[in-house]
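Translate structure to sequence.
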C-alpha cells in the first residue's frame, strides 16, 4: 500500500467507527427511560453528541458532517421514520456547526462545557424549527423554553464525559 493511501484509509475507518459509535449511543439512549425523571417527550441524554464533540476537536468539517449524517441516516433506516430523520438531522447539523464555530472562533473563551451546552441548545432549537415546518404549527415553540433549560445539565454532562474521554484519546493519538 502506498504511503499516501494509508492516512486516507485510516480517516475513512475512523469515520466509519464514529458513525457506528454514534449510532450505538443513540440506541443506548432509547433504552434509558429518561421520561420517568423528566416528563418531557423526546428528552435524551445526548450521548450521541459525544461523537460530534469528538469530531469538532479532531476531524475536519466535511468528515464531521458526514458522521452526523451517517449516524442520523442509520438511526432512521433501522429504528425510525422519515420524520425522525428530519428532526435528528436538523438538530444534529445545527448543533455540530455551532460547536464547530465556537471551537474555531472562540477557542480561548469557551470551554468544552460551553461548546457542549451550546450544541445541546442548538440541537433543541433545530428540532423545534423542524417541528414547526413539518407540522405547519407554532404550537411547539413554548416547548422550546423547557428544552433550552434542560440543555444546560444535559450539555454539561456531555461536556464532562467528553472532557475526560476526548482529550485522553487526542493525547494518545499524538
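Result:
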Amino acid at each position: 500500500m502506498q504511503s499516501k493511501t494509508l492516512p486516507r484509509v485510516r480517516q475513512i475507518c475512523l469515520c466509519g467507527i464514529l458513525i457506528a459509535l454514534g449510532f450505538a449511543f443513540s440506541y443506548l439512549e432509547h433504552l434509558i427511560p429518561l421520561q420517568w425523571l423528566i416528563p418531557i417527550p423526546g428528552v435524551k441524554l445526548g450521548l450521541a453528541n459525544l461523537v460530534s464533540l469528538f469530531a469538532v476537536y479532531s476531524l475536519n468539517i466535511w468528515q464531521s458532517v458526514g458522521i452526523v449524517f451517517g449516524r442520523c441516516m442509520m438511526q432512521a433506516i433501522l429504528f425510525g421514520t422519515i420524520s425522525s430523520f428530519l428532526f435528528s438531522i436538523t438538530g444534529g447539523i445545527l448543533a455540530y456547526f455551532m460547536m464547530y464555530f465556537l471551537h474555531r472562533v472562540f477557542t480561548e473563551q469557551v470551554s468544552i462545557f460551553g461548546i457542549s451546552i451550546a450544541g445541546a441548545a442548538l440541537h433543541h432549537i433545530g428540532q423545534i424549527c423542524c417541528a414547526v415546518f413539518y407540522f405547519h404549527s407554532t404550537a411547539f415553540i413554548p416547548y422550546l423554553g423547557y428544552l433550552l433549560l434542560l440543555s444546560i445539565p444535559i450539555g454539561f454532562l456531555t461536556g464532562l464525559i467528553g472532557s475526560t474521554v476526548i482529550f485522553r484519546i487526542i493525547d494518545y493519538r499524538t
